[in-house]
Design the sequence.
């Protein structure tokens, strides 16, 4: 995807036409899905939204122009007629922008992400907390189309779907639609951050940094710090972790242990703790997200037993973990597979049952309806939070967080077959492909 800036100070971006979408989910990121959810919530006619998705899937949307308050494209109808389509979006006021920027500066996570040219999804929720709606709400998307429809038509709906694909690649486009481009936002954040750090006003004026008499240490001016750049020693290099955690201490001594204390079990737990600490350090130094099994904080005894078993312990340890938690060896192995796909959340989907309420069922039905084109959806038999594909040994399990987990029938019952997905079609594809991946 290529977007190029036009207009004064890159106040407008134009994105080249995108190829058709062949099967699967229409968007693949949180931002794209959130934009489409906003469209579905604001459109009066859901059928027009579906028709617009078909247009967008077919590649009927030309290059998309994005500028503050408006997105524009030419959309071809099925008979080849072309219509100019516009969607007007409410622009944030200056006061709303001030609140949003202050929120970002106050949050270390937000400002670090934004200054690194990343858009954190939880910014939406935090912004709503200060009265700033980044995603469009009712009345925020105003369609205008050459077909003269008074509400969203297939052409403006197709345009909105195309913007969702653009947000997959560049979520900062949402800020441009709301009134300010990425460069303007980053510059404003840097200015505010520098002013906060210096204790001055937004113009960068220095403030009294204290005189040592109870007011805190006096700061160093930026000019002085810059002048010292060539004589100050370099920062130390980021430490490189050892290749492995090392061997745990041996507790096999001539001294008899206290009653109830098993040295071999303690050695195993010490080794597990060292391995987790080593993995955490490596992931943090590499800037990677913490893996599901890296921390045992907040786990129940049953969950922690599965976590330990996922570390490939000796057979006698695995047997004891299964027995002490009331699991068979096959049940423990299934739990380990689930844990490796998604930690405690995946284990809960395997071992716990829940009955979705009416609202959760409605959301699930809507997600299933939009996951396949008309006539392509497989026959699914529903029971509780499980949807079983009638024509294959595959199953979808709905988690309480709205994600779909793929399952496949094995020799000992249903087995987890992959990680969760927001798109049930993608999860079902994972389940049906599982046997081939295992080589069965």
Sequence:
């Amino acid at each position: 995807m290529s977007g190029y800036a036009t207009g004064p100070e890159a106040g407008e971006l134009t994105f080249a036409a995108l190829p058709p979408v062949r099967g699967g989910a229409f968007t693949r990121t949180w931002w794209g899905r959130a934009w489409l959810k906003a469209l579905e919530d604001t459109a009066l006619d859901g059928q027009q939204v579906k028709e617009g998705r078909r247009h967008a899937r077919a590649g009927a949307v030309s290059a998309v122009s994005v500028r503050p308050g408006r997105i524009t494209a030419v959309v071809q109808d099925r008979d080849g007629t072309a219509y100019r389509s516009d969607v007007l979006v409410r622009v944030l006021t200056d006061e709303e922008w001030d609140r949003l920027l202050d929120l970002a500066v106050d949050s270390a996570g937000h400002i670090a992400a934004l200054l690194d040219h990343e858009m954190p999804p939880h910014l939406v929720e935090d912004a709503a907390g200060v009265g700033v709606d980044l995603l469009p709400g009712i009345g925020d998307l105003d369609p205008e189309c050459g077909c003269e429809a008074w509400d969203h038509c297939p052409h403006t709906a197709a345009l909105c779907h195309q913007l969702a694909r653009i947000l997959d690649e560049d979520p900062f486009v949402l800020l441009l639609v709301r009134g300010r481009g990425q460069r303007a936002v980053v510059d404003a954040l840097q200015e505010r951050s520098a002013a906060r750090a210096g204790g001055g006003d937004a113009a960068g004026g220095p403030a009294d940094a204290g005189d040592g008499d109870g007011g805190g240490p006096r700061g160093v001016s930026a000019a002085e710090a810059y002048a010292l750049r060539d004589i100050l020693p370099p920062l130390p290099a980021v430490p490189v972790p050892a290749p492995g955690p090392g061997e745990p201490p041996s507790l096999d001594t001539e001294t008899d242990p206290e009653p109830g204390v098993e040295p071999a079990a303690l050695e195993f737990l010490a080794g597990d703790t060292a391995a987790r600490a080593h993995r955490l350090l490596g992931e943090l130094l590499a800037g990677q997200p913490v893996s599901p099994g890296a921390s045992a904080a907040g786990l129940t005894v049953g969950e922690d037993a599965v976590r330990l078993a996922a570390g490939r312990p000796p057979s006698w340890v695995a047997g004891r973990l299964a027995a002490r938690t009331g699991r068979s060896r096959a049940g423990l192995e299934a739990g380990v597979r689930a844990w490796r796909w998604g930690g405690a959340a995946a284990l809960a989907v395997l071992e716990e049952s829940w009955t979705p309420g009416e609202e959760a069922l409605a959301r699930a039905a809507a997600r299933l309806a939009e996951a396949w084109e008309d006539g392509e959806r497989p026959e699914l038999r529903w029971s509780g939070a499980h949807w079983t594909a009638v024509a294959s040994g595959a199953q979808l399990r709905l988690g309480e967080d709205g994600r779909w987990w793929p399952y496949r029938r094995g020799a000992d019952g249903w087995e987890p077959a992959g990680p969760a997905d927001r798109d049930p079609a993608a999860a079902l594809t994972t389940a049906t492909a599982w046997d081939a991946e295992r080589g069965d």
Observations:
- The first strand starts at residue 3 and ends at 6.
- The longest helix spans residues 263-285.
- DSSP finds 16 helices and eleven strands in the chain.
